[in-house]
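Open question from group meeting: does this chain pack into something compact, or does most of it stay loose? Before anyone orders reagents, we agreed to write out a predicted structure and look at it together. Recording both the input and the output here so the notebook holds the full record.
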Amino acid sequence: MDCDVAIIGGGPAGSTAGCLLRKYAPNLRVTIFERERFPREHVGESQLPPISKVLDEMGAWDAVERAGFPIKIGATYRWGNSDKLWDFEFMPVKDYRDEPRPGRYEGQRTQLAFQVDRAIYDHILLQHAQSCGCEVHEGTKVASVKVNGDRVECLVLEDGTEVRARYYLDGSGNAGIMRRALGVEIDAPTKLRNVAFWDYWENAEWAVRFPQSATRVLVLSIGAGWIWYIPLSPTRTSIGFICPADYYKDSKRSPEEIYAWALSQEPLVRDLTKNAQREGVVRATKDWSFIAQRMCGPNWFLIGEAAGFADPILAAGLTLTHTSAREAAYTILELERGDLDADWLRDQYHEIQVRRIGQHIRFADFWYSANGIFTDLQEYTTEIAKDAGLTLTPQKAFQWLGTGGFTDDVLGQVGIGGLDLAGARQVSQIFFAADFQWKLDEVNELRLNVDGAERTDIPVFRDGRIEVVPCWVRQGKRLPVTGLFAVMLSCVEKHKNIVDILKEASRALTGRQNIGAESFTVKQAVQVLEVMLGEGWIRGKLDPNKPRLQIGSPREGEQIHLNVDLNARIESLIASTSGASD
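Structure tokens returned:
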């Protein structure tokens, strides 16, 4: 069997790559081999907004939207030093509008996400890939991979059939079928070693419900670990428990016992499920973060969880999966065209995946380090800081880690895991009960500083083509000259006073409302300047005779705030339980 691109795995990674390859190069013969028959159950249901943009580009948005999955407007957490529930929202709830479904990918829907039943979601995507012209073979296991040095020679199916292609993609998830055959080692840049247990419930109550099936996921720390609570449909809910592997081992409980124990510790979960029924099958897996040491070779690419995995506390798994598959498809498209240097394309694919996955792992470490049972991560965060050339106390390292890496997730923007810089700083203040100062508050004159930096090229993935854009690199930090960063670079080059810089930015953004298919605001421009100042790309000084900014980060805002209703409900439940025991 011969084809142009052979993909191992029909999950979201394989479907995404297949759809985009066929969309932009319909002459390519793309074949997907999936060992199971869909639909099949899979964990990892909570999404982030960047996925919706990929679904729209794939042409799969309408089919996914028609499935009626709950709209994810954000998350409600109990974490860190506070015993209260906090809401973290992708957009201010006051701005959310009741719009009929199914709806188009436009307006407020570009800022929101889905909570999906993976059995249905993955099946929709694989069927869509087939409708795009991919040859899909379900119930077809890739038994082995023949390699010659660093090249893949062919895939060998269970029946002995050899599949030869010009490009091979490994979307086989944790199995890493091709990765293992090639002998690609993995790194685990974290001390987190967690295990997860979960089951599905029918007719569990939603903790919060907005019009048109919009809701939040619940993430509830219980000291020994944390519980997730994710509505997947009007009747079906995924409820799971994650804890350190050592804690589970030392507890000497079975998966069923520790799952039941964990849910019994949380009065809100007990109340939400009092009229619900469990499927009664506790699934278990290890959630160990890792990064493959090599992401691609002469004729192969790792995509999705075969390339790496970040702990699910920030729900980044599917985002990393869709994004890596999209960028692998774009890279193959450019290799086919031959207009760009092949080695540069492969090097960039590798570097981008390593940086993005690594930063999500580090950001997960930041979240865990603020939770009771994970205090052993404190010293580890100082090690991470040292790698970046910084010497910080554990708490300062927490704060640095929680606000770093904001140029790596979405090129040309600031943000990670659904949070922008301001949101991450509010989270830091909640976790550590301490105010976080903005560097821009201390200065009012700015100068570009690229001393000692190297100017290089990086890729921007857009409309089926890879655009080459400049980027400054210095001591592991990057300043991409694209998106909002390019706008602010131009403003700083024209003016030195902060007021004039922001006025120039306002004019530029008003005249260019769509920069790289994204709309930006002056608020986001301020955050870009803060990142540039914090990473040394601009130098600041204070002229006492001129005004300066007073930004600040309030403990609560429009998108991060206490959940008054649920906190009151929990207090009432605890009081009633206490009264009954008395």
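Observations to bring back to the group:
The first strand starts at residue 2 and ends at 8.
The chain is about 35% helix and 25% strand.
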